[in-house]
Amino acid sequence: xxxxxxxxxxxxxxxxxxxxxxxxxxxxxxxxxxxxxxxxxxxxxxxxxxxxxxxxxxxxxxxxxxxxxxxxxxxxxxxxxxxxxxxxxxxxxxxxxxxxxxxxxxxxxxxxxxxxxxxxxxxxxxxxxxxxxxxxxxxxxxxxxxxxxxxxxxxxxxxxxxxxxxxxxxxxxxxxxxxxxxxxxxxxxxxxxxxxxxx
Length: 199
Description:
Number of strands: 9
Number of domains: 1
Number of helices: 4
Strand content: 25-35%
Structural class: alpha+beta
Shape: globular
Distance between the termini: 19 Å
CATH class: Alpha Beta
Largest sheet: 9 strands, mixed
CATH architecture: Alpha-Beta Complex
């Protein structure tokens, strides 16, 4: 997920400088939206669940894994690509969390997993992102290397650790989504193999 609502008084907030410096965009006309995906990955094979965040190279902010959905991609394909590039996880290492009794398949079209939340936020005064946030479970460390062009600063943090971070390093909505995933989705949602869904 790239970008979040600006926080008053925050050291790093989205504005036109951020937009021009950090964010390659697909739609560039005023008022247009790019679609992005966010992968909120939780390790549960340890004593206490830990959430994956990476330090954005240019903004200096902690984000979940994620990025733009390219014009030739579905959201699910974008997730697989971004997860491989930014975390080193092979997509097959992960389970996706889905609401119980959710609609998993359709007879004549391809069904994709349901996001935890879909949100809109301004990246600049004239450009916007619509982000689809998904929850994943990992039971091991990544098997591959992070792409050399991506941030190498990955951090596994407990929910308590995330809650202590201030707005200079993490946006409130990132905290809120990870809180919901750890407190609700881990207990109440089904774990589904990512291979159940077509790339």
